[in-house]
What we know:
Layout: H1 5-25, H2 29-55, H3 66-71, H4 76-85, H5 94-101, E1 106-110, E2 115-127, E3 135-144, E4 147-157
Antiparallel strand pairs: 1-2, 2-3, 3-4
Helix pairs in contact: 1-2
Amino acid sequence: MIFTPLFITFLIIVFALTWLFVNTIDKRKWLTFIVSLALTPIVYFYVFYPFINIFVSYHHEKYFNANAWENKPALRYEMSNYIVNDSIFIGKSKTDVEQALGKAEWFSWDDSIKANSPEMWNYNLGFKPGALNQTQECLELVFKNNRVVTVKQYQLEQSFE
């Protein structure tokens, strides 16, 4: 376990709240302190931490790995920031992209040709980690002259009818 300043701060807050609660049950300070000290890790990991995870959409980030992209689609979202922010596919050919990401899962709509364009490849990243997320994340690569010129991530609203 890594003890960061934020973790220590949260533990102190949980301890103080636990101590205040236990203090309403029994007024003996030494007993209140011992019970609060024992209950703090339990309250932190089983009440506070899950509650925070519902409202904060934190997720791990990973470097791009073609093997993991193909074999573990659940990890795609964790690799997406690296792909977009570091522009690792800008300037790559369609063949290079297909070797790394596989065949395009679908083509985007292009209003200029009024059809799905084979120059706009899309990949499903899954759902953003978090309890209340209902938007599917997607990755779009736009090609010009057989080379990637744009990589962007976007959300696709899900409708459950």
